[in-house]
Amino acid sequence: MSTRSVARRLRLPSLGGTAPTAGVARTADRRLGYALVAPVVILLLLVTGYPLVYNLWNSFHNVILSNAGAPQNFVGLKNYQELASAAAFPAALARTLGFMVVSVVIETIAALGLALMLHKAFHGRGALRAAVLIPWAVPTVVSALLWTTMFDSRSGFVDYVLGILHLPGSQTTWLAGEWTAWTAVLVADAWKNVPFIAIILLAGLQLIPGDVYEAAKIDGATAWQSFRRMTLPLLRPALMVALIFRTLQAFLVFDIIYIMTGGGPGTTTETLSYLNWQAFLVDTNFGYGGAISISLVVFSLFIAGAIVLVMRPRT
Amino acid sequence: MDSVPAPTTSVTPVTPGAVPVAVAVGRWRGPRGRRRFAGQVFFYLGVLIVLLIALFPFFWILRTSLESNAEFVQGVGGANGFLPSHLTFSSYIDDFTQLHFLTPLLNSAIVALGTTAVTIVVASLAGYALARLPIRGGGATLTFILLAGFFPVLAMVGPLFLLYRDLGLLDNIYPLIITYLVYTLPLSTWLLRNFFAQIPKELEEAALVDGATRLQTLRKVVIPVSVPAVFTAGILSFILAWNDFAFALSFLDSPSKFTAPLAIVVFGQSQYQTFFNRIDAAVVVITIPIAILVLIAQRRIVSGLTAGSLKG
Amino acid sequence: MATIELDKVTKVYANKNQAVSGLSLDVADGEFMVLVGPSGCGKTTALRMVAGLEEISGGTVRIGGKVVNDLSPKDRDVAMVFQNYALYPHMTVAENIGFSLKLRHLDKAEINRRVKEAGQTLGLEGMLNVKPASLSGGQRQRVAMGRALVREPAAFLMDEPLSNLDAKLRVQMRAEVSRIQRRLGVATLYVTHDQTEAMTMGDRVAVLAHGVLQQCEPPQVLYDHPANLFVAAFIGSPAMNIYQGEIAGDSGQLTVRLGDHRIVIPPTQLEARPALASYQGRQVAMGIRPEHVAIGHELPDNPSVIPAEIDLLESLGAEVIVHFRIKADHIRPEGAAAEGEDQTLPIAISGGSDKTAPGVARVDPRVQLKVGEDVTLVPDTEHLQFFDLDTGAAITS
Q: What's the sign of the alpha-carbon dihedral A217, A219, A225, A228?
């Protein structure tokens, strides 16, 4: 797979052919180029490549730190078999996929609305955009704790309002029930991430030339038809980018789960990343954890690939 | 790897197309004008609702943080209604005196600034090389850099834990500076690379003809002209680095080494009965600088998030 | 003795596109050499190869006698003025001009002195501490020139420096640039697509088409003795009238037949173009410049006249440009094709359904002419030009 075909596959802008120097100078430039790129590549390889290889290695061995004396011998596919058989992993996989789908769908639709809103030129658009950016900019920890507070049965806003409006459920301990806990997690996740998706979609909207709509209007399209047949197709590239990011992030969700629910109640909100963390840092089972990690990487690749395949703009 | 922002188009926003939301801003003009006016009202109502959703939670935690311990235990309702019956700063004081919250804040600042500094330098050099120098495999390299940004964070935690343990670097904030680069380098390199690529070639050519070497050109001509983009990359990197929780949770052990996000969570968990008023005070403290940063640099942040090619 | 020598220089791109083919050119010390041609002819590519901004595929480039093919721009001791000026936006005018000197570690006093001098030469005194963004196009162009001047280089390279200026400014700057270059006496390679600039500024003009050098001579020589159809049509405005005609021998005289009419070729022409005789019975391209076409009303005894109809009159005050139509086959050589037409055809012969061809004449305003009128064209046969239809080359010896 040549450089060019990789770049073309991902539709990256063309590279390298812009060096305005000749002869010997060109070779010097090339060497300089390698030197300048080296730090980034080395650093990133260290933080991603090294763990990948190490995980792979560990996943075929018995590496449990808490068993201080145990030999770390080769165990073949045992860790992977454990993945498939132990109830925790498939259940977590199902839950994670479910959360991924639900959150991405809801958040994307909401973000589309927000992007359309931000696209209009109106007084205070800047203020709205700034206000909406803050939830994205604050650490996930803030979002998680903030919504834990909001959903708390005693000091939370949600139950307070439900009580004032005399609606049922004003005494719910949200994080103590499976579905209510997922709801709280979803709200926290959406609150932080809808702005992010919206900004990306907004950029896509701004690329659509205005005369496309005017032509459609003359042709007799209603607002909805215009939206469906003009906006959405032309927004496809931006949607694809947003989807890749958010879908993977939702699939790999950890922070919110750990902070808000700790995987609970029981194990009902355990996601794959949470399992991974547990294996590494609680069970200190780096072999089993390694297997989970490899599966995370593989699933991520599949998901990203699937999105690209489905959403890729047809030239 | 929460919230690694996306590379999309570098856009100086073009005149927005008239997107057909079912609303038109129009002047009062009879029955049709009345419909438009109603539409306008609904639109601004929508804006208001969005604003509330975005900002009200901050109000709520501010409110909670200003409750005294006694009121908090009481719960919300009655006299302790929408606004607490007594406002007090006791939570803040407690956070800083009893829980020594200043230390985690400093730790976070050190690490985030460190990561940002490293990122700006490294990403600028790499971005320039990828934009202007004739390296073979530039496309593949850029692809790798982008893909690295998608690597599952939790998959990195295990091996890096073992590595840092072997190097005696656990419970130390400095390895975090390197670790956080996985958040910041992909986006920054992409952003800066695209920016450098659209600087007119003639500018660098003039410098070369004037007698500058490549590095001199980069230093004296390209970088000075790129200050806005570098600044944007810096802001985004800072936000991303500050945001981390998973790595801090995994590599840090003693409270004096915690970063702010970790500290808040651990402090909150350590109480038998979670005192949200104290947790929320810490949350407020952590939020204010970020909020200010966003308000000041909001345009830059948006343009940085959307930097790159939307095609792919 | 600093000179620029190009020896069979070639540029081939990765996609096999050959931008410059075997260009050989010498610019003497102090000479102002203009590279001119239509867009895409390779002139800018050639210039950039001399500057070191483009890799040389074949041939050698020598500056000051030294082969520079493998040298980076900074080692070639050339100064360049870019079409879009390429001023450093973050530096003041003074810093822009002095940048190259700073890079060479000249001491501050010397840099200041030279910058001041350049500023005076170019009328930039009041603007030395301003940033380029607040300057007009003409001022920016002068800063770009100042940046080149102050280097005292072995050669000047200029890439269409005047094309972004408005017409009046361009005329003014033409004179300035020429004056400055003459004063400095530095070998200069100047690229432009404007043949007027080429003619007025160059000591010698090199005409390029499709990467191949057509002719390199002083302007007047190009004008009076174009080496081929392309140069003939490219140089001179309004362009030379070119028609297809047949050489015939008529009772001892050589004539060229245009449509139904014959033009007698005078003996002086035959002396200058002995090869013409061998073209008897063949078609050739015949050219005559607008100023060599006289227009009259009567039919004089002179057999070498052509009836014409007046299409359009353009009064320029000092003269009148007359657009006419005659019965003949018109030739539009390469480079003279209209927008959007295929420029790769060497010649385009058109005659229309009624086989009339357009032409242009420059006449004294005192001649009374009306549109639609039938008149007589009297070509000054001493100034006819003849070209081979297959090669486009001028028919000489």
A: negative
* Lowest-confidence region among B33-37, B38-42, B306-310, C194-198: B306-310
Domain boundary among B32, B47, B62: B47
Could you tell me if residue A75 is inside a domain?
no
The answer to whether the CB of B310 falls within 8 A of the CB of A203 is: yes
List chains touching A (3+ CB pairs under 8 A): B, C
**Quick one: pLDDT at residue A77?**
83
How far C182 CA sits from the closest chain B CA (Å)?
A: 22
Residues of A numbered 46-65 whose beta carbons fall under 8 angstroms of chain B's beta carbons: which are they?
46-48, 50-52, 54-55, 58
**B297 occurs within a structural domain:** yes
In a domain, B188, yes or no: yes
A265 interfaces chain B, CB cutoff of 8 Å:
no
Count how many domains chain B has.
2
Whether residue A142 contacts residue B286, with contact meaning beta carbons closer than 8 Å, is answered with yes
Flag whether pLDDT at A122 surpasses 50: yes
Look at residue B191 and tell me if it is in a domain. Answer: yes
Chain B's closest residue to C76, CA to CA, is: B209
Range of the domain at B178: 99-309
Q: pLDDT value at position B309? A: 38
**CA A78 to CA C216: how far, in whole Å?**
82
**C295 near C375, Cβ under 8 Å?**
yes
Q: Which of A18, A212, A281 is nearest residue B250 as measured by Cβ atoms?
A: A281
| Interval C83-98: pLDDT, tens | 888 888 888 999 999 9
Range(s) of the domain holding residue A13: 3-59
Q: Which of A278-287, B303-312, C206-215, C276-285 has the lowest mean pLDDT?
A: B303-312
Distance CA C264, CA C217 (A): 30
Q: Tell me, yes or no, whether B83 lies in a domain.
A: no
Instruction: Give Cα separations from B21 to A120, A207, B289, C143 (angstroms).
Output: 9, 17, 35, 51
- pLDDT confidence tier of residue B1, bands split at 50, 70 and 90: very low
Task: Indicate which of C53, C61, C82 best probes the interface with A, i.e. most A CBs within 10 Å of its own CB.
Answer: C53
Distance CA C242, CA C258 (A): 11
Same domain, yes or no: A212 and A259: yes
CATH of the domain at B114: 1.10.3720.10
pLDDT for A97 equals: 94
What's the rounded mean pLDDT across residues A54-58?
89
Peptide bond before residue C365 is cis, with ω within 30 degrees of 0? no
Environment class of C366 (CB within 10 Å of its CB; exposed 0-12, middle 13-18, buried 19+) = exposed
Tokens of C57: 């595929």
User: Residues C38-53: what's their mean pLDDT?
Assistant: 90
Q: How many domains does chain A have?
A: 2
Q: How far is C51 from chain A (nearest CA, A)?
A: 9
How many other C-beta atoms can be found within 10 angstroms of the C-beta atom of residue B72?
Answer: 23
- The model's pTM: 0.78
Check residue C28 and give its pLDDT: 92
Check B205 against C80: CB less than 8 A apart: yes
